[in-house]
Structure formats: C-alpha cells, structure tokens
Predict the structure.
Amino acid sequence: MTDHIVILGGGTGGAVLANDLADRLDAELEADEVRVTLVNDGPDHVYKPVWLYVPFGEREPADGRRPLDELVDDRIDLRIDRVTDIDTDSQRLRMRDKTSLSYDYLVLATGSTLAPDEIPGLAEGGHDYYSESGAETLREELLSFTEGHIVLSVIGTPHMCPAAPLEFVFMADDWFRKRGLREDVEITYTYPIQRVHGNPHIAEWARPIMDDRDINVETFFNAESVDPEANRLTSMEGTDIDYDLLVGIPPHRGVDLVEEAGLGDSGWVEVDQHTLEAENADNVYAIGDTADTGAPNAGSVAHYQAGVVGRRLASDIRGRPATATYEGKTLCFVETGMDSASFVEFDYENPPSPVPPSEKIHWAKLAYNESYWLTARGLL
Ligand SMILES: Cc1cc2nc3c(=O)[nH]c(=O)nc-3n(C[C@H](O)[C@H](O)[C@H](O)COP(=O)(O)OP(=O)(O)OC[C@H]3O[C@@H](n4cnc5c(N)ncnc54)[C@H](O)[C@@H]3O)c2cc1C
C-alpha cells in the first residue's frame, strides 16, 4: 500500500516540508511506499519578508516570487489548485474544479489571510506592506511623501511577523532623517495592548528606541474605523488620530476552510503545541501561521515546524513511534534602521533578549533573505 501525504499550502512551511520529505523519505518514494503531493493555489512561491523593503524603494515585489516547480523537488507531485473543502472523516479534500484528493496524512500550511474589511474605511483610507499590491501602492505614496503625519497602526493580533511594524517605523525614521526630512515628518505608532509589542521583552527593548527617535506611541489603541475623507483614525477607546498617510497592519485570519472543517476558530488550527497534531482530527498536522501554537506567525517558525513534522511523518511511515517535538524555536532579525538591525532567538521556555543593533546584523538579515531560496529548497 502507498501512503499518501498531502501538504496544503506551498508557502514557507509547505515548501520546506515538501523538500524535507523528498530527502528524508528518498527510499520510500523510490519504492512507491509513499507519495507526497503539495497543493498550492498559485504557481509561485511568495517570500513575504521582501515586502518590508518595497515601500522604501529598496526591493521589487518580483524579488519575492519564484515558480514553485523550480523550488520543489521533482519527487513531489505538485498540484496547482485551490482546495475548497476538507473532510477529515473520509480524509478527502475537494478542489475548486470539483475533483477530490484523498490523503492518509494531511499537513495544513495555509498561512494567514488579511481581513481589512473588518475595519470600516481601512481598505479605502489605509495602506499596507503586508501584501504585494499593498507594498507597491505604499511605495508610490512614501517615495513622494516629504512632510506630514505618518501613522502606523497595528490592528489586532496575531499578525504576520510581529516585529515588522516596529521595523517599518524604525526604517521610516532613519530614511527620512538621512534625507533631511525628519523634522517635517511626524511618525506615530499605535498598538492594541498596553505596550508596543506582544512580547514584553521585545516591547521593553523597543520602547526606549522609539522615545529616543521621537516616534510617538499610542498604546491601548484598538482601531475601530477610518474616515478616508477626513483622514482620521478612531479607536474603540475613543481616541482620534489625524493622519496624512495611514499604514495599517490589517486584522489577520487563517483560511475559512479550516473553520468549516471544524479544525479551529478564525481559520487557525488547534494543535498540540509540541507535536503539531490537530486537536480535532486524526492524521492531520498544521505548521506555520495557521498552527495555533502560541509561537509568532513567522517564516522561521514555519521552517522549524516543517522539520519536526517531516521527522514525525517519517517515523509514522516507518512504523516507529514519532518522537520529534517543536519547542517554540523562533529566530528573528529586527531592522532598527536602513543599515542596522538586532537579532532575537527564543522558544517556549526561554524569552527573547534582543542583541545590540549593528550594521553587521543588518547585512546578515539581507544575506539571509538572499539565501532563503536555498533554505526553501532544503539546501541550508
Ligand atoms: C511584510 C512581512 C515581513 C515579514 N518578515 C518576516 C521575517 O523577517 N522573518 C520571518 O520569519 N517571517 C517574516 N514574515 C512572516 C512570514 O512571511 C510568514 O510567517 C510565513 O510566510 C508563514 O509561512 P506559512 O507557510 O505558514 O504560510 P505562507 O507562506 O503564507 O503560505 C501559505 C500558502 O498556502 C496557500 N493556500 C492558502 N489557502 C489555500 C487553499 N485553499 N488551497 C491551496 N493553497 C492555499 C497560499 O496561497 C500560500 O501559498 C513576514 C511577513 C510579512 C507580511
């Protein structure tokens, strides 16, 4: 009998896992004991961290795209299609074209989706760099912005890359300073809870940098609506902020089909945070943003989780107990300007302790972004 592993989602987690399995299960694939299918709803793999640099004119959106069939090992069946339904009882997926695909093991790696419509006026009045088109449009605005008030508002958590909003305001501050425009540009950062970042250690590190750089901070600011005519952002707490350019980090959700399949709320899959097995179905794993583990929605997390699930699946296929576990490992480079960055590494037990920013770490982040394409192939 041939076991069929289906990976749903060809982003960071899905691509790394597909290549991991091609390598790890080489003999079983060769002997037809196992088959691995990767399903993605588009032909390209998208590397989102590139979008942070697009509004500043430092990178092109196309730098974050490569065809999946160039990235994924030939031993993997690549299927470009959209899954519209998951039936965990019959272990079957339905596709947009009404065909179906059965699985013995399913790994959900469907990532995050943006929900700007949850905030009235945000889609019309706000800009973002959390989508390819958003980053491109924001670039048009930012490159011609020479004076006025930029407001970056983090609207709800969890969101992808918890550090990216801090990075944006640190980079904007430095970018306008270097161009002699900072005195004419006011920058405000809002965050929904009582500190500037979800993680207290990162918040404690970032806040003095924001104060030193004259970045205004509004905490306990839960954006409720945007008035695109008046250029006004209003919070549930009743505070109004007038802006000239609004950069909103939109509310995030997982994908609807997760909730429809009873696997978790808001599209996030309920999993055991160590084994990454779904709580509400057998033979289903989740990795990356969609796995509700408490770890950040970050590519590094998706990458490490892919390795754990790869090892667990290989054990299962070989009839051995699966012992690999995910311990919350997260790595993150944090840009603190246009040419300096910090770095954090943490897990479920050990909190982050950001290292002093340096130019060397900034170059390490840029080098990592280039070498990502080797990582996704499973070569690093
Ligand atoms: C601006 C920005 C900067 C970032 N910077 C960093 C950083 O510096 N470091 C870091 O670690 N992380 C960073 N991230 C976060 C990182 O990009 C995500 O956490 C990571 O992509 C999550 O990987 P994933 O595999 O879970 O999901 P994704 O990479 O989003 O992949 C999900 C895939 O599933 C597909 N899919 C979804 N539904 C279906 C369906 N029904 N049928 C078929 N296919 C489907 C999607 O099309 C997509 O290809 C950043 C994100 C942003 C937006």
